[in-house]
């Protein structure tokens, strides 16, 4: 790893990390502060839903969602936290090396006496640290805000920790896939549309899957691999699906190194 | 005119990609729906439920065993997809000149900045209309297998009008961001935060009745599919509000772009 590249990269992330972390913390605050007023309604809905036939509930993706408990409600809002994290990570992955070519700085960077694998490693570690800082903010704000707003209700700390830890591989998925996509393309003109498509696409795929029964297509989305209501209910990860994520991450990272080492770099002159 | 044609050509690939996404989405949705269409089990369940409960879950509006109910459910997803596309196109079509370092060239052409914005906005608008037609077409074609009646087509037409208004809102906001932001990267990230923010607001505003006033702030709640289906009309307050947003955004776009320093 090259310290200079790492420090420079980390500096570039400062503004973005602060914005994303604060927005996600604010999102959690708004949702959690509504918990106590919502829990009463949810308890009534639960009574009603107990009489519902299971087929109907699953048609509307309502099985296993108990919004009257702290963690049930938290797993509902966690989906939106995941959506933010997905777009952030996809953004970082897609722009990690493509930004150098877009801003015509790639030839400058590659002329330095540092090998391409080391450049990629330094950049990856900087992105990981940036995502890690966001994670810490998410963890701390989740735990603190839940403590503050849960009222009389109680929850299991171990399930919550399991859920919160799941965002690390979740982000890695989008970072790695974004990176390999950017390297597969000849030229990445703008990052945001692709990051939006990747993040929102996976989200819609999973939300849509809940609605009208499962299909194979949904197995590719990390929103399903790290499904919050599954983790809360079973107090464990859905291992086969988590493995899908991990395989995708490993393959993408390895492929990225291979592609970057032999990549044709566009230059201004 | 030249700028308009050039932009249409440059955006064709993006339009095709979005078109494929929408069509795929409709295909997956319809394949799921086929399990529910006229499914006697589901119908029996729905008949057994007390009416109050049906109303509570707006199942009355969305009887999933009919094609209209299915399209009503799809409306929310269509709105999300088309809005993202419109906001991205709007912010990108202006700011990409600075990103690709072509802005000095295009602004030395013998056309005013105002006309550049007009041509680009029209090109993006054509893209939006094309994507809307693809959405409507794919839905209509896949619906023919389920013998839709004339009320379905009225409903579909209303949905397309509502989607078009939504597209206009996000397109105009995107163009405003592209014109007003000094750095091209900020236009994109602001467009993302606006989309995410309004989407989350649309969810938060349904959590608590006292937060209902928030629906004025998020275009995703301007048009309710249940109302489109049951009353066959758009809420004119929100149509007016949408048009006001469009007019203000476009006026802001022209004003800011005319007197802006370029990021080179």
Core attributes:
heterodimer; A: 269 residues; mainly alpha; 0% strand; B: 264 residues; 10 helices; 77% helix
Give an account of the 3D structure.
- The complex is a heterodimer of chains A (269) and B (264).
- Chain A is mostly helical and 269 residues long.
- Chain A has helices at 3-33, 35-50, 54-59, 70-95, 98-102, 106-110, 116-149, 157-165, 167-184, 191-211, 222-225, 228-234, 239-261.
- Chain A has 13 helices and no strands.
- The radius of gyration of chain A is 21 Å and the shape is elongated.
- The model of chain A has no long low-confidence stretch (mean pLDDT 87).
- Chain B is an all-alpha fold.
- Chain B is 77% helix and 0% strand.
- Chain B contains 10 helices and no strands.
- The A-B interface holds A 16, 19, 23, 27, 30-31, 34, 37-38, 45, 48, 52-53, 55-56, 59-60, 80, 83-84, 87, 102, 189-193, 195-197, 200-201, 204, 207-208, 211-213, 215, 217 and B 14, 21, 25, 28-29, 31-33, 35-36, 41-42, 45-46, 49, 53, 56-57, 64, 73, 77, 80-81, 84, 88, 91-92, 96, 99-100, 188-189, 191-193, 195-196, 200, 203-204, 207-208, 211.
Topology of this structure?
The complex is a heterodimer of chains A (269) and B (264).
Chain A: H1 3-33, H2 35-50, H3 54-59, H4 70-95, H5 98-102, H6 106-110, H7 116-149, H8 157-165, H9 167-184, H10 191-211, H11 222-225, H12 228-234, H13 239-261
Chain B: H1 2-33, H2 40-48, H3 51-56, H4 67-99, H5 103-108, H6 113-143, H7 150-180, H8 184-207, H9 225-231, H10 236-258
